[in-house]
Amino acid sequence: MGFTDDVRVRRRWMINAAAIAAAPLFAGALPAGAQEPLLGTVVCVAGEFDSLPGPDPEPRVVRRDTEVVARVGAGPEGLEEAERDLRAELEPLGQLRCARSEPEHTHVVVVSYMGAVKEDLAIHPESPRFQIFAVGYGASWEEAEDSATTSNERFATYYDGSGYRLVMRETWGAGAAAAETPEDSPAGREGDPGTRAPVASGPLHPGTVFRDCSACPEMVVVPPGRFKMGSPVWEGGRYVDEGPQHEVTIDSAFAVGVYEVTFAEWDACADAGGCWGYRPEDHDQGRGRLPVIEVSWHDAQAYVRWLSRETGVPYRLPTEAEWEYAARARTWTARYWGEGYWGEGESWQCRYANGFDQALAGTDHGRRLLDFGAMDAAYAPRPATCSDDAMFLAPVGSFPANDFGLHDVLGNAWEWTEDCWNASHLDTPADGTARLSGDCSRRVLRGGAWNALPWHLRSAFRTTLPAVQRGYDLGFRVARDVR
Ligand SMILES: [Ca+2]
Ligand SMILES: [Ca+2]
Predict the structure, then answer these.
(1) pLDDT value at position 255?
(2) E strands, 108-151, in order
(3) Which ligand places an atom closest to the C-alpha of 457?
(4) Span from the CA of 445 to the centroid of ligand 2 (angstroms)
(5) CA gap 45, 159 in Å, rounded
(6) Omega before residue 24 within 30° of 0, cis
(7) Is the alpha carbon torsion for 83, 85, 87, 93 positive or negative?
(8) Alpha carbon of 84 to ligand 2 centroid (Å)
(9) Buried b (16+ CB within 10 A) or exposed e, 62-83
(10) Distance 437 CA to ligand 2 centre (A)
(11) How far apart are CA 185 and CA 384, in angstroms?
(12) How many A from CA of 218 to the centre of ligand 1?
């Protein structure tokens, strides 16, 4: 089966899934928003250090048999203890260089060689603070350092003689806090109006959360930056239309919905005479803070038109590039929560996203979906190996945000983007604008949904449906420029 077949087959699987009646489904108990202690990270590199030629006097690892061990500790004492233990353990192996993050800081990032993490690289598998970047030998690890567009990141880079490049990134500040402490994030909780962002009044800086009217979706300002759009060829679950990987530069900050647009927000539009008065079917699962579904791309356009009229601010759908930039939130991994040695990030999925999980697989509905998948899917129709406690939609914000403060970018409901469909990234704009050539009767969908398989819940995954299509897994989030 060729690549073309793979793509076609995948579309069919998705359409089949959408065509099955949603009921009976179970709302399931909602995760209360996983709370974690303020963890920090210690990474020790053991080996023989030397200075490489060049202006940088920093000693680098130059020997092959390097050991890199990363540990997590809770609080300053926990970190100190973790470092003490690591040093004792690694002492016999050579010189040591250890980096300890501040407890409230997040993300120590390790860059590996061609997706292969050194076998002796021990990593705490449960922590979202570790991301393993897969970059090729000679590939653009420098971009990791270049991407430090804000002052709240710092890097330490090590090499070893066998071609591994290790980049440790420590971040702190608003984005990090939002990702690590859901209770402090703008997410709020269902039915708690006190956590709603105020209506915008001040200047809109990156990280600012605001609303333009009381019924408007909460927005967060995403900083400008540069990223690689699409997936590398070695990414697990990749489809050919995710390439070629190419650099996109987004010059200005823009605002994007913290959440998918909810039923409550949609209904406010319909009640006010917008959105064609259309009331999408909720399949008896309730409305409120569940993401609105059964909306086509044209429906989404009707909503942003209404929002623009209401606020006097031009709202729109995110472009495909903006969507991926916002989803990645400076991560290069398949998923914004990291991917582990060889994609076990997939099994962390249930902590971060609402996808097709074991609980859904155990229902009649889930089995029917998988049966359809078994006939058609390019990859085996295997659900996530964990349970996320949501068998249908979850209220928006039930899962932790990414580093830009966005929730449910992966999973929950598929999200329409502005762009017309094209089967690759060839000739796509490099400035983050929408691609409005190609098949404009179809638009790009991103992010996967409650009934989507793990390889659909990746930042680079893209698919398409006719712009007129509604479905019980199709939703959207909004965007607007910030001036
Ligand atoms: Ca689920
Ligand atoms: Ca989503």
Answers:
(1) 97
(2) 108-113, 130-135
(3) 2
(4) 10
(5) 10
(6) yes
(7) negative
(8) 42
(9) beeebbbbbbbbeeeebbeebb
(10) 25
(11) 26
(12) 24
Ligand nearest to the CA of 409: 2
> What residues contact 451, with CB distance under 8 A and at least 6 apart?
17, 356, 360, 369, 473
> How many contiguous H segments (helices) and E segments (strands) does the chain have?
10, 20
Domains in the chain, start-ordered, CATH in brackets? Answer: 5-179 (no CATH), 226-481 (3.90.1580.10)
pLDDT mean across residues, the chain: 73
Q: Output the pLDDT for position 203.
A: 80
Q: If you measure from the C-alpha of residue 398 to the centroid of ligand 1, how many angstroms do you get, rounded to a whole number? A: 11
**Which one has a higher pLDDT value, 19 or 170?**
170
Q: pLDDT tens digit string along 364-393? A: 888 888 876 655 555 667 888 889 989 999
Spacing, Cα 53 to ligand 2 middle (Å): 47
Q: What angle do CA 253, 349, 119 make, to 5 degrees?
A: 100
pLDDT of residue 177: 32
Please tell me the predicted confidence (pLDDT) of residue 193.
35
Checking if the pLDDT of 125 tops 50, the result is no
- Angle, to 10 degrees, between the axis of helix 263-271 and the axis of helix 297-311? 70
Answer whether residue 264 shows pLDDT above 80: yes
* Residue 184 vs residue 329, higher pLDDT: 329
Residue 416 CA to ligand 2 center (angstroms) comes to: 9
Instruction: For residue 351, report the distance from its CA to the centre of ligand 1, in Å.
Output: 11
CA of 384 from ligand 1 middle (Å) equals 9
